[in-house]
Amino acid sequence: MKRITFSLLFAIGICWGVYAQQKISAFEVDLKSKGASIAPDMWGLFFEDINFAADGGLYAEMIKNYSFEFPSPFMGWQRIQEQGAMGYHYTKPHLDESKNKKFLQMQRLNEEGVFGMSNAGFRGMAVKANANYRLTFMARIAKGENLSLKAQLAKGRNILADVNIEGLTRDWQEYEVMLTASETADQVNFKILLEGEGELDIDMISLFPEDTWKGRKRGLRKDIVQLLADMNPGFLRFPGGCIVEGFDLENRYQWKNTIGEMKDRGTMINRWNIEFAHRNAPDYFQSFGLGFFEYFQLAEDLGAEPLPILSCGLACQYNSGEIVPLDMLDEYVQDALDLIEFANGSVETAWGAKRAAMGHPEPFDLKYIGVGNENWGPQYIERADVFEKAIKSAYPEMIIVSTSGPSPDGHEFDYLWKELTARNAELIDEHYYKSPEWFLESARRYDNYDRNGPKVFAGEYAAHSTTEKDALKKNNWEAALSEAAFMTGLERNADIVRLASYAPLLAHVDGWQWAPDMIWFDNLGVYATPNYYVQKLFSTNPGTHTATITANGNTVAGEDGMYASATIDEKAKEIIFKIVNTNAEIRAFDIKFSGNVKGKNATWIELQSDQLDVAHSLKEPKKIAPEEKSVEIQKRVVKTELKPYSVNVFRVKL
């Protein structure tokens, strides 16, 4: 029923917006006028550890609770005691000052049968045929002689890989071996088996595919990062999101706990562990193997500007709303200053030296820093003032991102915009998770923003299709199409909208808490949604300046069910224009150029489906994908027919 309503609204001539509906017969593209500059990093990525996006997702660690630091230290593990084997397992404390507080002791009382521990990973574990998997761990013999270990990957009784580890000593040593899988399989278990009578202490049991992104040890999933790289993103915002705030201040994200050696990073419950009653995830924790150094490194790999967001001393106001008194805010402010030094400081500085020790002596060239996430009220403004004064005093060139709260309108939104405008804020982060209709109606949202006021960071947005009635709101074409229409408004107002990113980015098909999400994966594979392809069309066809595309003398943002924007790419010497047809019928147009163009053909990229409820899956990952073709230019005119429910990008040589 929703789909019928969506198409009929346009078919009967109702305009989404305040402008009267006019039938469009032609678009006029002005080749001579060059408008506002478009930020080269305008279209980017927002990352948050929700939906098992980090541990169990982008971060390629395969073993859950690898260091036994969860509050229930054996969560993720099971004891193996078969064929007459006898023994026990315990956790014991480390006596040093590291954040790795516990280790496992396996006590074997006889030499019969099979004894050890198994781990099923994150919603399962998967391996690929002939691929290598790097196992590392720390171990020492506590009692006994000639103890050895056997490591296995198994699916039921079928052993897919195994290796023997001998030469264990009475001192803590690190061991590294490779396991090679004999076949591709999901729902695999990892096993570590003790052979010989005695006691063995073991810790930091870690398993990674050898084939990670850029081949890095303890690295990232190559298939997921490749999809991100293919978008050519301008920036990477991290680590969230509500992760930044925490449900209380103790649970907030603290970047200093995420750098250095793994034993110094600790573990923390993920706030999405218990946030949604219908999607509880009691085994959802953060190991911080994917930490701030790795975020900066990933941004560098992607050619994206890093954009870290830090706590301003306010816990999530939907949860505890815990607040740090202003006279106790120094620690939080110092964290921000130290982070800038970690990113940009020379190797002679304290935090720059820590970055260099992790393998990156060159600065990361950080330009942005965010203060707070979705906070609101005078309490936020008071704290933002303190942060801005301190940051600008030490780093006057740093661009500070402020928050406008969790909603795109209402009392709190209006209050924050008024206060932040009075303070000459540089970038204000707006968030909107709304229906497709809202996105269509809001394509002119920024047309009347004050050109001399703060710039906008559209930091989190996604259309939530109302055709989906269950908790799992699919990334269907209705949502993606409406986002494309809205994004033409962002692009047309690039002098106001400085940065923009869809959210959330990643979700495990068996471990999600929030939907929709741009990229979905399981332990074997990954797929991009229609929303991903819309984002990619904009991020890989950006331009350097806005240009004018009109119909009947007016910009187009809903008239006749059409949405359009145009840019000039001075480097490629092209004009790029995007036209979104939200109608259920074909629309035939002349596209006229007010000036000379080069060549007889234009490049035309089309993203289209006749079905608004179509969505992708692991089995059908490309029901909707861009199709590139050529269209003829005759006497500065392109005659074209735009398919129903289509997003179209044209590139014309100047």
UniProtKB/TrEMBL annotation:
* Top-level EC class as recorded in UniProt: hydrolase
Q: Which residues form a coiled coil?
A: none
Stated EC number for the protein is 3.2.1.55
InterPro entries in the cross-refs:
Alpha-L-AF_C, ASD1_cat, GH, Glyco_hydro_b, Glycosyl_Hydrolase_51
> Which residue range or ranges hold the Alpha-L-arabinofuranosidase C-terminal domain?
459-646
Catalytic function, reaction form: Hydrolysis of terminal non-reducing alpha-L-arabinofuranoside residues in alpha-L-arabinosides
Kindly state which keywords UniProt assigns to this record, in alphabetical order. Answer: Glycoprotein, Hydrolase, Signal
PANTHER family, per the entry: ALPHA-L-ARABINOFURANOSIDASE 1
Q: Which family does it belong to?
A: Belongs to the glycosyl hydrolase 51 family.
**What is the designated name of this protein?**
non-reducing end alpha-L-arabinofuranosidase
Q: Which organism is it from?
A: Belliella filtrata
